[in-house]
Design brief:
15 helices, alpha/beta, 9 strands, 355 residues, 16% strand
Length: 355
């Protein structure tokens, strides 16, 4: 089915948007879909629709695929080149196809039935991922300086109590689809002074929701955007083991996939905490990640995150600076086993461009 073709009107729909050839986003969406199916009685499952320019990836999946062509994606991007404008456009269009719509980012998993999301939506209330902060709080961040100045100059500065919402989940009724339609011109008007702020579509939705009753999806879903690297490593394990095509056992199997960043056992964490007492305070954050990676054990999902913990430690080293890799092992860092030290050193030297 093409986005320009008539789409059957339904009572409830769960909408995903993904584009581009990066396979990992397809795996994100597939895991999210599997957990939605697993958490819901089949007879009550809302219609799941995937808007994508890679329709072949979802052949055989229990979803309706809405194919996006390049012309549509370009039109949705707009003249300002803001990629996430496409989300607002997708929500505005898809919102016409159902009595209730819940849009959800691909990097989510369901902890409870998706019906609990739809139950929080009616003509008088909306659903978001979560309320993150207020406008007054956001203004303390340097990221907002250029944008807030542009709004003030245009006479569009909001009230301090404006709630800034994460749009990883957006739920609304057909009669309220105007929130997305009105968000699009806001995004276009703001483009000249957004700078490096990449959450403009979220702010536009937040403006439209100001004063409305807003419910939060957290608790029903887990949105792992802050720990993508860990979950991506886990996704590779899951889909290598069970395949990327759908089969009836997959929803049940998907519930065994960690919905959070794997950490060592409590006993191993206690041991790490004790070891860090001998590490200089300024290096303890790095040391904790080093040791967590070293003691990760248990199932394949945990072991897959070993290197991810280490790479996170290396990122911290890069930001902190002053760590000398011109010796066998930097002073102050906790020691690992010989094999782990050798493996970590190779990764660190490559990442930090040390000869």
């Amino acid at each position: 089915m093409n986005v320009s073709s008539p789409v059957p009107y339904v009572k409830q729909q769960l909408i995903y948007l993904l584009y581009g050839e990066r396979r990992i986003y397809q795996l994100e969406a597939k895991l999210s879909i599997l957990t939605a199916v697993a958490r819901c009685n089949p007879a009550e499952l809302p219609v799941i629709r995937v808007l994508t320019d890679q329709p072949q990836a979802f052949v055989g999946w229990p979803v309706e695929v809405i194919t996006l062509d390049e012309q549509t994606l370009q039109a949705w991007t707009g003249d300002g080149g803001y990629t996430h404008r496409r989300k607002a456009c997708a929500i505005a269009q898809a919102g016409q196809w159902a009595e209730k719509t819940v849009f959800i980012d691909t990097d989510t998993v369901f902890l409870q039935s998706p019906l609990k999301l739809f139950s929080q939506v009616d003509a008088g209330q909306f659903l978001v991922d979560e309320v993150e902060t207020s406008w007054a709080e956001a203004l303390r961040s340097s990221d907002y300086l250029r944008f807030s100045a542009g709004l003030a100059e245009a006479g569009s500065a909001p009230a301090d109590d404006l709630r800034l919402c994460n749009s990883g989940v957006m739920g609304f009724t057909r009669c309220n689809v105007g929130i997305a339609e009105r968000a699009i011109p806001r995004i276009d008007a703001w483009t000249p002074y957004t700078g490096d702020l990449h959450t403009i579509e979220q702010i536009a939705f937040s403006f439209e929701l100001h004063g409305a009753k807003v419910n939060e999806a957290r608790g029903v879903i887990s949105h792992y955007f802050a720990m993508k690297q860990y979950v991506h490593a886990i996704l590779e394990i899951f889909f290598a083991r069970y395949g990327e095509g759908f089969h009836p056992q997959m929803p049940r199997l998907a519930l065994k996939v960690p919905a959070h960043r794997p950490v060592p056992s409590w006993l191993a964490r206690l041991s790490v905490k004790w070891s860090l007492k001998r590490v200089p305070r300024e290096l303890r954050g790095i040391g904790r990640k080093l040791l967590y990676g070293s003691v990760m054990s248990g199932d394949d999902y945990q072991r897959a995150c070993k290197v991810i913990w280490w790479r996170s430690a290396i990122d911290d080293m890069r930001k902190q600076g002053g760590i000398d890799w011109n010796q066998d092992w930097p002073a102050g860092l906790p020691r690992l086993g010989r094999r782990d030290e050798r493996a970590f050193s190779e990764i660190a030297r490559e990442s930090l461009k040390v000869s």
